[in-house]
Amino acid sequence: MGGSGTVNAVDSRSRVATLERYQVLDQPPRRELVALVELAARVSGVPMATINLITDVEQHQVATVGFDGAVCSYDDAMCTVVVEGGEAVATDDARSDDRFRANPFVTGPLGNVRFYASHPLTTPDGVTVGTLCVFDDEPRHLGAEDAGMLSTLAGRVMDVLELELRTRQLETALDQLQEANHQLETSNDRLAAFAGQVSHDLKNPLTALGMSLGLLEEELEDSGALDDALALLLKRAASGATRMETMIGDLLEFARIGGSPNLQPVDLAIVVADAMADLDGEVVPAMVTVKKDLPVVLGDQTQLRLVLQNLLGNAVKFVVPGVGPEIIVAASETADGWRVEVADRGRGVAEVDRERVFEPLARLDKRVPGNGIGLATCRRIVSAHGGTIGLDPRPGGGTVAWFELPGRV
């Protein structure tokens, strides 16, 4: 027998698992592999060559030249010597080589091999799966240059096998991506339908509210009961209703288009002022310090207002009893855009929860009113802008909620 007859179990399992991934056994000869064995035979000056892939029990000749490929047992294969040793082998006459003299490929039952040279086929992670083998039924000698060429061709054989494997993996990944995209499209369609229904259900009462406020203002004005304070309240109420209707429409469009914002120059100072106005009664100017020179960023004004409205609302909502929120809104340049921060003196968020709070319906403190949608909405909007959002601890206590937007105006 050519091999030692003893196969390392771990090496055998690794080899079999690797060959299963290559999907080349029991398949028609690959055209690229046949071309390589033909070249190997030509450069070695022999009539026969083969690519042998070896499992734990068999040798498969998957590409041959000069004879028809076949399958033989592991114990009968000459190339088990190479697989087990992991090094190239060459012998001028196998009859005078103790490793091969009794092998059935040499003695006649399976062949009459005399000259034999074989180079291991080893994967990038070090698993030897077979050999590139050249042989003849006449004795001959393999020169150093030809041995080097055989080594090079063995490397190309592995390149072909690895390329086919990576191609299949890429095709599988693409199929999975297409399926995920299909599921996402379905989800977006459902979201759009849901948003449309919610938009309809909300817009009707908002429209009625706007009309009622207009009629009330007219009646009060006609009766002479409309003083400045009441006029201001009615104006704020009407403005809030109008903004809410605009926001609902914009968010509906946002859901329909799968998160593609309408990017335009947006003055953050105006957006912060609008967000605070939306939160009138919850956030008062005395609570907030807005750093001067807030930038003009590239974004969707309505969506960014919603982000800042949520962050400012949270800064007040999660206050520590007896401690003022001390909210600071600031912005700074990054390498490719802007970083906007809303800092507070609230309860803070534990490090283990700083990612979870951005999941839909996540609520860390159920004693605080809310539905757990706000930060999830913020992440969706910021991500649609190509940015990132997160939470950091504030020195001295509290939280710094931040988001980064790419691009400059």
From TrEMBL:
Any one GO molecular-function label of the UniProt entry: protein kinase activator activity
Keywords on record: Coiled coil, Kinase, Phosphoprotein, Transferase, Two-component regulatory system
SMART domains for this protein: HATPase_c, HisKA
Domain of life of the source: Bacteria
Catalytic activity: ATP + protein L-histidine = ADP + protein N-phospho-L-histidine
Coiled coil (residue ranges): 160-190
The protein's name in its UniProt record: Sensor-like histidine kinase SenX3
Organism: Nocardioides guangzhouensis
